[in-house]
Amino acid sequence: MIAEKRNLTFKISNGWARNLVRITGSSVDISGLENIPKDGAVLFVSNHQSNFDIPILLGYLPKPIGFVAKIELAKVPLLSTWLKFGDCVFIDRKDIRQSLKAINVASDILKSGHSMVIFPEGTRSKGKELGVFKPGSLKLAQKAGVPIIPITVHNSYEIYEANNNRVKPARVKVTIGKPIDPNDGGEEKSNVVKVYDIIKSELNK
C-alpha cells in the first residue's frame, strides 16, 4: 500500500514538476543517470541555488523521492502540499531536538526503501557559490546504510533569483555523481568533505 502511494505520488508530482519548469521556458540537461542504482534507496545530496531546485529534482530524477527540507517550506502554497504528500521531512534548525527527531524520521524512510534528497547548505545560495555544509547533514545516510549520490545543479538561480525574483528562461544542467559508500571513510565528516569537493569541482568546470 505504501509503495503504491509512493509510486502514484511520483507519477503525478513528476509530471507537475516538469510542466512547472517548462512554463518558465527553461530546459534541463541531466547527465549521470547511470550512476543511480536501480534498486534500493539512496540519499541524494545536492547544492541549492534556487526555489526551482525542488521541482527540477522532482521532475527529472528517475526515482520516487522525498525531501529533507527547512521548515519554512511547509508554509509555501502548493509546494508544501506536494512535499507533505511525498514523504518530506521538515527540519527546524533552530530546534535541536526537533532536528534530531526529523533526521531519525528521514533515516526510517530511507530504511523503508524510499530515496530522499537533502540540501546540506541548509538554504539557497541564489548564485553560483557553494555554501558551507551543515554539520551532521549526511548522518542519515550512515544511519540508514544507503549510498550517497552527489548532485550538482548548475544555473537554476537564473530562472528566478538572478532576475529580482522574476521568472525568466534558463538552461539548467544537473550532474549526477557516482555512489559513495557512507561507511567507506569511517566518519560522517569525511563524507561531508568528499561530497562538498565533488560538487564544488563540478561547479567550477
The rounded Rg comes to 16 Å
By DSSP (H or I, 4+ residues per run), the number of helices equals 6
Secondary-structure-derived class: alpha/beta
Q: Could you describe the largest sheet, including whether it forms a barrel?
A: 7 strands, mixed
Task: Say which CATH homologous superfamily is assigned.
Answer: Glycerol-3-phosphate (1)-acyltransferase
Question: How is this structure best described in words?
Answer:
By secondary structure, the chain is α/β, with parallel strands linked by helices. The protein has one domain: Glycerol-3-phosphate (1)-acyltransferase. It is 37% helix and 17% strand. It contains six helices and seven strands; from the N terminus they run αββαβαβαβαββα. It has helices at 2-23, 53-60, 79-85, 96-111, 139-144, 188-203, and strands at residues 27-31, 43-46, 65-70, 89-91, 115-118, 148-154, 171-176. The chain has a seven-stranded mixed β-sheet, sandwiched between helices. Helix 1 packs across helix 2 (53-60). The protein starts with a helix and ends with a helix. The mean pLDDT is 90.
